[in-house]
Amino acid sequence: MMKMIKESQLWRLYLFLNAKIDPGLDYLHRKINSDRSVKITFIQGSMSFLLFSFILKGFHKWCDFLSGHGKKSALFSSNILLKAFRTIDNYLVIVPFCYLFLDYGFRNFSALSMISNLWDELALLSFFMYFALRPLFANKEKARYNEIDHLIVLFMLLGIGLFFFVSPEMNVAIDGYRAVYQHMLWYFVLRGLIRQDNRHLVYKTIIFQGLFLGLHSLYQVLARVPMPGNWVDSTEAVTIRVFSIIGSPNILAAVFILFIPLMMALALVEEKKEFRFISALTTILMFVGLLFTYSRQAYLALIGAFGLFLIWYYPKTIKYFIVLLGLMLVTFRSVADRIFYLFTPEYFERSQVGGRVLRYQHALELFQENPLMGRGLGRFGGAVATHYNLTPFYVDSYYLKTLVEMGLTGLLYLFFLWANSLYKIIRIMESQACKKNMLLLVGIAVGIVAVILQNAVENVFEVPMMLAYFWGFVALALSYE
Q1: Which of 44, 78, 81, 108 has its CA 20 to 30 A from that of 31?
Q2: CA–CA separation, 231 vs 250, rounded Å?
Q3: What beta strand segments (E) does 283-406 contain?
Q4: Residue-number span of the structural domain to which 114 is assigned
Q5: CB-CB contact of 148 with 421 (8 Å)
């Protein structure tokens, strides 16, 4: 198969473009690299950070105790068994990044459907139990705790505080808390699993998922798989929107805009040309899939994320970026029509009757009732509120949902958390002496920014998979520290 690929004209074109791109990447690396400190010192000096660091030292003592007993135990006296456990430990990082396939399997195969609503909770519990016992055989794996870990813990504590202050109905508040915070715990799982020697497994897993989603989306286009009529306005000419196994074009688009920048980076920096070619092919397939989701918010979010990066680091290229966007809009007229429909009087009129404008106005009215701490977790604009008949619709803005449920306190802290996470990732990126690592971090950061932007007009984080993948990407970036 690879021999046929290498003899193709497409492969020769790829090698030619690759030779032209590399000098530009070298220049970009020299421009970005600045060897700056990656510590957020004002957080590390806080009393709460020092308190949690002290607690972590106690856990390290427990790890040392288990490690000493593990070496003496009969169970791990066999080198073969010890190597087997360490190999499993190395490959476990794949599991969280296969969330999409695992969730689909549990929900669609009758033999597994009994635990379809519990499998992720059981998986999280199993991982944390595993971390408590891992020192028995691991090679001195120490739990790490940095500024972002600390801010996430504080965000969870803030949620507990709001839970007790604003909880008209306890069962709603519990489900609301779980919807916001439970899947952020995957961040800590991946912080404990990702290491320098197994990061390549993460990238291969992401490539495999991207390739599958891209190919499946292409199949849906060619097979003209029907879509529900309410996915587009009646005045639009769009007749197909791909959704793959995810079931939603907008969430599929969210996965694509998270994966595509990283896939582009992999296509540029991987040492094996065959692997770079597969990454480039996957990028193209995902991009085609993204186009046929017809998700306007995802288009604009990805354009905005790339645009912000170019303005910040490579402003001379922004004019070429604009020209490229113009060419794409001319080439893909259906995409252009769907984007420009946003700015027509017809769209605004329809949106005022039963669309985003109406929902956003309603959200702002509810926010004014309790602007500081909100109405309570799970009480507006999302899956939990819909389940308990507390809201007639999804608000289609994760930020407005957070604003109504958690008030300014919750929303401002969420922005503070994301800003510090991006600041940390950028500092790590700028400190990389290795061009490959720097470009991979650029890809991760652009994908993260794109999802943050899409959340402004979509409830992306209402989907547990997206929360797990988003914080998984943050953990992946911080593993380069």
Answers
A1: 44
A2: 10
A3: none
A4: 1-481
A5: yes
